[in-house]
Amino acid sequence: MKVMIVGSGGREHAIAYCVAKNDKVTEMYCLPGNAGIAEYAQCVPIGAMEFAKIIDFAKEKEIDLCIVGMDDPLVGGLVDELEAVGVRTFGPRKNAAILEGSKAFSKDLMKKYNIPTAGYENFTDPEAALAYLETAKFPIVLKADGLALGKGVLICQNLEEAKAGVQTIMMDKKFGDAGNEMVIEEFMTGREVSVLSFVDGKTIRTMTSAQDHKRAGDGDTGLNTGGMGTFSPSPFYTKEVEEFCEKYVYQATVDAMRAEGREFKGIIFFGLMLTDEGVKVLEYNARFGDPEAQVCLPRMKNDLIDVIEACIDGTLDQVELEFEDNAAVCVVLASAGYPLDYEKGLEITGLDEFDKHEGYYCFHAGTAFKDGKLVTNGGRVLGITAKGKDLKEARANAYKATEWAKFDNKYMRTDIGKAIDEA
């Protein structure tokens, strides 16, 4: 089997790590990949949005399975285009990837099918949004409708901040066309939990729970990022919460998409908020989370290729997902200044230490080879992941392992998984 992965982050490294375990896989390619993925796959300098080049490469290499890891190509319709030329592809088609591609669509879907979520209104006219804010309760949340690299969400404490947010999103177009439409949403308080799932259009199989840390600074301060670390499982995701979600959220979402003529095959990532009024859906993503994949996939006992093929074939009802009875924590090592200005090209050393210890992983995100040396090539550089018998041990192991990886201007949060101590 020849496998092609589209993407270049820590998520795609975790996918490649799992794919490499399958004996059927004889060749693996990653477009464009990174220095860590190069251990398992041939990295090809084709960007994730260069659809024509991706399709030509898939045909030339006679790819048997393509896994699209990133949100942009999914929302842009890469799956449809690959399938049109006969390439077996894992991920939602364009009309289903809208579940992540448009927050207004997903909120309207939840309202229509009674899937619990925060109260909201959608706006395409900034003047109407500003008028609405005059009567709103604060704090309040503003969300750019489209994809914005996980950064298009503003939490506004008062009317002045909210007006500035409308200016930023809809007028100044800081997030580009993602801000053509905007969702204004009730602010929810509570614990956040992420639950990733495999879907074959009809059947859904949820993975182990996780919790991400989006803010750049300790104590959830600073700017939103693509994720500074995560842990799995979440001690706040109780059996009671799981049973509620199975009844009112998970299958309900899959059925709603089918009813809308948008059959979803691939990964649905449920961002949940555990509020005082019960569980509510914060957001949907249409792919593995990053860095959630780095803590969920190493704990999965099933072969990833087998599960993916069941999703494509519509036979997921014959699969039972199994996860190790342990825990994992991922701490992201970033370049100082991320998510704004940061330096690239800094040499990375010490990673050979990971080969000496079982249950420790170094997933590459922003890395490259330059003049024969491993160097930084992005804001989020490495995802240092470790397992443990429980969350506290996994957290201690992960932070110990962050000391092995060395590069100038290394930055990390020191409180990833601190909520574990409160559970």
Automatic annotation (TrEMBL):
<keyword id="KW-0547">Nucleotide-binding</keyword>
<comment type="similarity">
    <text>Belongs to the GARS family.</text>
</comment>
<dbReference type="Pfam" id="PF02844">
    <property type="entry name" value="GARS_N"/>
</dbReference>
<dbReference type="InterPro" id="IPR011761">
    <property type="entry name" value="ATP-grasp"/>
</dbReference>
<dbReference type="InterPro" id="IPR011054">
    <property type="entry name" value="Rudment_hybrid_motif"/>
</dbReference>
<dbReference type="Pfam" id="PF02843">
    <property type="entry name" value="GARS_C"/>
</dbReference>
<keyword id="KW-0067">ATP-binding</keyword>
<keyword id="KW-0436">Ligase</keyword>
<protein>
    <recommendedName>
        <fullName>Phosphoribosylamine--glycine ligase</fullName>
        <ecNumber>6.3.4.13</ecNumber>
    </recommendedName>
</protein>
<comment type="pathway">
    <text>Purine metabolism; IMP biosynthesis via de novo pathway; N(1)-(5-phospho-D-ribosyl)glycinamide from 5-phospho-alpha-D-ribose 1-diphosphate: step 2/2.</text>
</comment>
<dbReference type="InterPro" id="IPR020559">
    <property type="entry name" value="PRibGlycinamide_synth_CS"/>
</dbReference>
<dbReference type="Pfam" id="PF01071">
    <property type="entry name" value="GARS_A"/>
</dbReference>
<dbReference type="InterPro" id="IPR020561">
    <property type="entry name" value="PRibGlycinamid_synth_ATP-grasp"/>
</dbReference>
<dbReference type="InterPro" id="IPR020562">
    <property type="entry name" value="PRibGlycinamide_synth_N"/>
</dbReference>
<dbReference type="InterPro" id="IPR020560">
    <property type="entry name" value="PRibGlycinamide_synth_C-dom"/>
</dbReference>
<feature type="domain" description="ATP-grasp">
    <location>
        <begin position="107"/>
        <end position="313"/>
    </location>
</feature>
<dbReference type="InterPro" id="IPR013815">
    <property type="entry name" value="ATP_grasp_subdomain_1"/>
</dbReference>
<dbReference type="InterPro" id="IPR037123">
    <property type="entry name" value="PRibGlycinamide_synth_C_sf"/>
</dbReference>
<dbReference type="InterPro" id="IPR016185">
    <property type="entry name" value="PreATP-grasp_dom_sf"/>
</dbReference>
<dbReference type="GO" id="GO:0004637">
    <property type="term" value="F:phosphoribosylamine-glycine ligase activity"/>
</dbReference>
<dbReference type="InterPro" id="IPR000115">
    <property type="entry name" value="PRibGlycinamide_synth"/>
</dbReference>
<keyword id="KW-0658">Purine biosynthesis</keyword>
